[in-house]
Amino acid sequence: MRLIQHHPGLPWPRLQRDEKVACEFCDAVQSAPRLREGEAAFCVHCGELLYQNRPNSLSRATGFSIAALIFMGMAHSFPFLSMSAAGNRNELTLIGCVEALAADDAPLLACLCLIFTVIAPLLLTTALLYLCGPLMIGRALPGAKQVARALQASEPWSMLEVFLLGFIVSLMKLGDVAEIQFHIGLAALVAVVVSIAGATGGIDRRELWDRLELANAR
Amino acid sequence: MSTPSFAADQGLASCHTCGRLSPATDHHCRRCGAKLHLRKPNSLARTVALLLASIALYVPAMSLPVMNVSGIGSEDGGTIISGVITFWEMGSYPVAIIIFTASVIIPVLKIVALAWLCLAATGKVGGTGHRLALTYHVTEIVGRWSMIDVFVVAILVCLVRLGTLMTITPGPAALSFASVVILTMLAAMSFDPRLLWDRQRRTS
User: Fold this and answer.
1) What DSSP assignment string belongs to A181-213?
2) Per-residue confidence (pLDDT) for residue A5, from 0 to 100
3) Cα–Cα distance between B154 and A193 in angstroms, integer?
4) Does B34 share its domain with B113?
5) Cα distance from B77 to chain A (closest Cα, Å)?
6) Residues of B in contact with A18 (CB under 8 A)
7) Residues A97, B155: contact at Cβ < 8 Å?
8) Is the pLDDT assigned to residue A151 strictly greater than 90?
9) Going residue by residue through chain B (204 aa), what tens digit of pLDDT does each one get?
10) Structurally, how many domains does chain B consist of?
């Protein structure tokens, strides 16, 4: 197999000049042209997106995943809001939700909540950082294939943005029952949601795998 | 536009995980190590089974209380629908609409859409490939947002623990509803949209 010289700073190199791709939606085989940054390739048969070359994909994915991890630390250290009523004061955190569900005899629900709001987002961002950081100098760390597969598996189950909408709905439900105070954790949670969107949208799946294959071939 | 050739006809399998084309005789993808299939295995059977399971769980999710509110001398378990009605009567239309959309419209439409796609893939109902592909995209993107209800329960359970004054505990419908969302997400993942185009190719 002839490899094109890989330069980390350059836009995404395809492996071979005559490489073919099959559309994931209609299975039509077609040639896979190299794209300039910001361009996208669409299927000639059904018009679905085949792949795209995201601008500064590696630095974007790396930067946003580092940001997401830092904000995640903050979102876990500070409460989103606190509520005082009748001499009681309760604070809302992600782990607090899980603990409350577990304490109220809903262990399965607590596990699901833990997976969707804590484990999957954490797995997603650490995996992306583990892959894209070293790829910036054209390297792949050991176990990169397994990590990349775990990354793809965790993606649909990371639901912090849904949690955020649920949070807004809950606020309206609480209404003026109690005195509510917002805390810095809420800003951190919003920042995590934005950073995760930036990190996962920053790099195309095919680009990630192509770059990993090149890095492994070195 | 000339008629393109299709990977399956050439004996090529495109990897579900990384998108690389490999000969279908290989068992695992050479690039990412995932199992290779021409099409997702038993796609229709799996999708239908998961859909049936989600329909079955949708019944308790709607009829049982989603959370129990216990206050001074009173205990009240409201279902999802009764919550929507309460909000509507209180005049909180946005909340009522969000909850109604997330817990009723999206899951029902998703189940109907996936069932329709399964029928279309077996040729029982018609529909152009483009429109069916759009249906598939929408079900895939929108499905996860139904989880809102479950998170609302989790947040309220965490916040509203005021002892004897007012305490909210999760009801049995919360877990059923979470299962409905998970099952429909799995059903959408196990459906292979290429079957729709396969069908169109065979009939045209």
Assistant:
1) EE-HHHHHHHHHHHHHHHHHHHS-HHHHHHHHH
2) 46
3) 19
4) no
5) 15
6) none
7) yes
8) yes
9) 456 788 888 888 888 888 888 888 888 888 888 888 888 888 999 999 999 999 999 999 999 988 888 877 666 778 888 888 888 888 888 888 988 998 899 999 999 999 999 998 888 777 777 788 888 988 888 888 999 999 999 999 998 887 777 788 898 999 999 999 999 999 999 999 888 888 877 776
10) 2
How far B165 CA lies from chain A's nearest CA (Å)?
Answer: 8
Residues B94 and B193 in one domain: yes
Q: Which residues of B touch A124 (CB under 8 A)?
A: none
Cα nearest neighbour of B148 on chain A? A166
pTM, two decimal places: 0.89
Note the ipTM here. Answer: 0.89
Determine whether the interchain pair A162/B145 forms a contact, defined as Cβ–Cβ distance below 8 Å. Answer: yes
Same domain, B25 and B45: no
CB contact (8 A) between residue A166 and residue B149: yes
Do B66 and B11 have their domain in common? no
B91 lies in the same domain as B56: yes
Which two tokens mark A141?
A: 């760390």
Q: Which residues contact A36 (CB under 8 A, 6 or more apart)?
A: A11, A53
Name the residue of chain B whose CA is nearest to A174's CA. Answer: B156
Identify the CA nearest to A178 among candidates B12, B175, B101, B168.
B168
Residues B34 and B45 in one domain: no
Tell me the CB-side half-sphere exposure of residue A181, using CA atoms within 13 A.
11
Q: Is A48 on the interface with B (CB under 8 A)?
A: yes
| Cβ-based contacts of B187 with chain A (< 8 Å) | none
Q: Which residues of B touch A167 (CB under 8 A)?
A: 151, 155
* B132: nearest CA partner in chain A: A25
Q: Closest by alpha carbon to A205, among B160, B188, B31? A: B31
Question: Which residues in chain B are closer than 8 Å to A205, comparing Cβ atoms?
Answer: 18-19
Residue B188 CA to residue B143 CA, distance in Å, equals 9
Count of helices and strands (H, E) across chain A: 8, 7
CA distance A78 to chain B (A): 15
Indicate whether B55 and B111 sit together in one domain.
yes
Q: pLDDT tens digits, residue range A102-144?
A: 998 889 999 999 999 999 999 999 999 999 999 888 888 888 9
A102 touches chain B (CB under 8 A): no
* Segments forming the whole domain that contains residue B159: 41-203
Q: Are residues B128 and B163 in the same domain?
A: yes
Q: CB–CB of A205 and B32 under 8 A?
A: no
